[in-house]
Amino acid sequence: MTRYLLFFLTGFAHVLIILLYKEVSGGPASFYPILGMAGAVPLFAFASWLTLFSMRLGAVVALLSLLLLIPWSVAAVMQALQQDTALDQVIIVIHAILILFALSALITSARYTFRRSLPWGLGTPKPGNVLKVILALIPIMMVVALAVGMQWV
Questions:
Q1: 95 vs 14: CA distance, rounded Å
Q2: What pLDDT digit, counting tens, does each position of 2-36 carry?
Q3: What CA–CA distance (Å, rounded) separates 72 from 46?
Q4: Residues near 72 by Cβ (< 8 Å), separated by ≥ 6?
Q5: Which of 23, 57, 17, 24 is nearest to 41 (CA)?
Q6: Alpha-carbon distance 8 to 49, whole Å?
Q7: Which of 9, 43, 59, 104 has the smallest number of Cβ neighbours within 10 A?
Q8: Which residue ranges traverse the bilayer (predicted)?
């Protein structure tokens, strides 16, 4: 259950920050925001609920997503360090917190991906099946709402 929350919150926070930058700047100036979105959306939309049904499969999806997401986070911090704005310390602190979440999620997903004793079909034992389905629908519905709201569909 904690992996669900970690992956969901990490991915969703990154999506919000990337979309905020996209709206403020008028569009991506490099490929890093696109790379970040390609990592953040699967992290909160798929890896979070996959860990409820198959911890190892969810960890693999999270590991691949985080390997795409971390370069955006590092590039955003480097860009914030180069600019001299009024809120540059706040922006750097926000990105430092996001990087800490991403690194903790990366370590967690790597730990569950390479654990040989963990079977592929073993899910999280605590919440019941009804709660697992409800928790799985939350990120899926958020992605659908995001896609409709941004007219990607």
A1: 9
A2: 888 888 889 989 988 888 877 666 666 677 888 88
A3: 20
A4: 14, 18, 32, 33, 35, 36, 39
A5: 17
A6: 8
A7: 104
A8: 5-24, 30-50, 57-78, 90-109, 130-152
